[in-house]
Specification:
By secondary structure, the chain is mostly helical. 75% of the residues lie in helices and 1% in strands. The protein contains 25 helices and two strands. The N terminus and C terminus are likely disordered.
């Protein structure tokens, strides 16, 4: 074991210092564990600041140079994804089997760091390099400066992503190698807090200067990464790993290694569902590179966009460590599944901006409110991401399976990057302006719906393979066909918390219904008779119908709960209370956003807008009821008990599991 006080302590010192914690061959005291976390989190801060710069600034640079959207998609997403799907799997596969005095992950980071920083800094000098090249080349003077600058940016960006892939391929696996397993979820909570905090600082204080000080931001990010992240890598020590056998060495070289990688990684349909879920999630999110232009088209400034990101980041920071406690209690795969299903509803609601335009100041404050009420949901789902992979992929081949997932996801992103740009350009043909950016939510709703469907299938397959109590990752390389992993105790559906959810959702339905007559009275007083008429003829009947449907569904869920308490067969299943409460709180607070939207439209004499916003609220309630019913059906045959106490004894075994 490598010894580097105070991060790593040898056994003798550890015994003197009191309680110790182990991760493979590494032994920590409480002080050593604290220092380890400090360096890991400092490294995460520097890494996040560096990673935030390129995707936020480069779209602005490309658009300023007149780059077509399809080419922007090719450069910013497709080309990096090709690198990810080729370099990433190779580095991950090799790092699992690499041995050195510095460990198996950190050498890949250190070796690529200088080249990454040079490419990042040169992105900031692309305009100056264009002038220099044209000054010394007759051939280049025949081309426009914008075309040459775009080519330079593309080259430096591709080289940056190539060297960055060495970091992105192994940095996440380092946690599994050096952090004791009983602290992984809480560490991920702190990790997310620091990363979100770094993003908040960048969005609040730096991003607003992206248009005027692009070079300084890029060079500063390169220096911070080189010095700060480099220090963290030098101070964090990895343990010793048993050398791979000769048979494993042969199976990992050349063509046999290629065959081994694919044969093991794509061996079971459960993994296919997981891989395709993340692939379509990436396919959907690719269009997010145009989100900044959507916000600008809605009348927001760069400073306002940065403030919204900063606010949501600060609220998420406050929630993340608290939310990380529930990741293990509710199971990260369940959190990701429920989150994916409800996310489709969120994207569907955002389609309202295709039909309504309000002044930028009002849009800013409404967006600020939406960012606040959605922060806890984003925090919970965000923290659950990596633990979900740790709980579902084989531990012995964690890097390999993560890279296989990344490879498939990147191949989807390559295609999506080009198609997303073509999609926006095609919509622009009909819109003739930046109004086309409002249609990004159609893209998000469709492909997020596909990804949600896939993770539902993965969730059902996970249940078939054992679920909360007996799941072990399929492993055809083992004689048993599975790889033994610790079973973390889960808190299942609890009646008292389901009753809390019922009260919260009652509030959503009742306030939505009762709010319509109140708004109608105000519209009548303001002489907005068109809005008054449509709220009475259409909106109020729809809200009443939604309330009735909810009462019917709630009655059915209560009957299933009563049946489960008495050991009787269930008609459907019982969704987990945790995620239901989180989403119920979010949409209960969203009633206030709906009221604000209607009030703004009445004040601005936008009667059509009041009708659209209220209709969207009614449709949202129908979608929520349908989503809850869908979750009941998803749990059918699997969730059959309530108020079951977790097996606390299983938790005591976690500290002894080797890495």
């Amino acid at each position: 074991m490598h010894v580097s006080p105070p991060v790593l302590q040898n056994a003798a010192v550890a015994q003197v210092s009191g309680k110790t914690y182990h991760c493979g061959t590494l032994t920590y005291t409480k002080v050593g564990l604290f220092v380890l976390f400090a360096w890991l989190l400092w490294g995460d801060f520097c890494f996040t600041m560096m990673e935030a710069v390129v995707p936020s600034i480069m779209p602005l640079k490309m658009k300023a140079l007149g780059c077509p959207n399809w080419l922007m998609g090719l450069i910013l997403t497709a080309a990096p994804s090709v690198i990810s799907m080729t370099v990433g799997p190779y580095v991950s596969f090799k790092s699992d089997r690499y041995r050195s005095r510095w460990g198996r992950r950190i050498p890949f980071i250190i070796w690529s760091m200088p080249f990454l920083c040079i490419c990042l800094a040169l992105l900031g000098f692309s305009d100056d390099l264009c002038i220099l090249l044209q000054k010394n080349s007759e051939f280049l003077r025949q081309h426009s400066p914008a075309a040459i600058t775009i080519a330079l940016v593309a080259f430096f960006l591709v080289m940056f992503k190539f060297f960055d892939m060495f970091v992105n391929s192994v940095f996440w696996y380092l946690f599994n190698d050096v952090v004791p397993v009983q602290f992984l979820s809480r560490f991920m909570g702190m990790f997310k807090i620091v990363g979100t905090g770094a993003g908040a600082l960048y969005n609040c204080f730096i991003f607003k200067y992206a248009g005027t000080h692009m070079r300084e931001i890029l060079v500063g990010a390169a220096l911070l990464y080189l010095i700060g992240f480099g220090m963290a890598c030098l101070m964090i020590k990895e343990g010793q790993y048993p050398p791979p056998s000769e048979a494993e060495r042969k199976a990992s070289r050349g063509l046999p290694g290629f065959v081994t990688f694919f044969k093991e990684s794509f061996s079971h349909r459960f993994y296919w569902f997981c891989f395709l879920y993340t692939s379509f999630t990436a396919f959907a999110s690719t269009i997010g590179m145009f989100n900044i232009f959507f916000n600008q088209e809605m009348g927001m400034s760069l400073a306002q966009i940065g403030y919204i990101h900063a606010l949501s980041s600060v609220v998420q920071m406050a929630a993340m460590y608290f939310m990380s406690i529930f990741v293990d209690r509710w199971h990260p795969l369940r959190i990701c599944t429920y989150g994916a299903v409800f996310q489709v509803v969120g994207y569907a609601i955002s389609l309202v901006w295709i039909f309504v335009t309000i002044p930028g100041t009002y849009f800013f404050w409404l967006n600020m409110g939406n960012a606040f009420i959605g922060s806890f949901m984003v925090a919970l789902v965000g923290v659950a991401g990596l633990p979900c992979a740790m709980r579902t992929f084989p531990k012995s081949r964690f890097g390999q399976f993560c890279s296989a997932q990344s490879m498939l996801r990147s191949s989807f992103t390559v295609v999506a990057g080009i198609i997303a740009g073509l999609f926006i350009d095609a919509v622009k043909v009909f819109c003739g302006s930046d109004f086309a950016y409002r249609f990004i939510y159609i893209w998000l709703a469709v492909f997020s719906g596909i990804s949600a469907t896939l993770i539902v299938y993965a969730y059902r397959e996970w249940y078939r393979l054992g679920g909360d109590k007996h799941f072990h990752p399929p492993a055809p390389w083992n004689p048993s066909g599975k790889e033994e992993m610790p079973v973390v105790p889960i808190v299942g559906p609890q009646t008292k918390w389901l009753n809390v959810f019922f009260l919260l959702f009652d509030g959503i339905m009742i306030l939505s219904t009762a709010g319509v007559p109140v708004l109608m009275w105000w519209m009548y007083a303001q002489h907005k008779m068109l809005a008054f008429k449509w709220h009475g003829l259409l909106i109020l009947p729809l809200e009443i119908l939604a309330l009735v449907l909810w009462l019917v569904l709630k009655s059915s869920m209560r009957r299933d709960i009563h049946a489960a308490q008495n050991g009787l067969p269930l008609k459907n299943g019982i969704p987990h209370h945790g995620m239901l409460i989180i989403f119920a709180v979010k949409f209960l607070l969203a009633i206030g956003i709906w009221g604000g939207q209607v009030i703004v439209c009445v004040m601005l004499d936008m009667e059509y807008g009041t009708i659209v916003f209220s209709l969207a609220n009614a449709i949202t309630n129908f979608l929520l009821i349908g989503t809850i019913y869908l979750l009941c059906r998803i749990e059918r045959g699997s969730s059959v008990v309530v108020d079951e106490k977790p097996d606390v004894e299983a938790d005591s075994t976690l500290a002894t599991i080797p890495v």
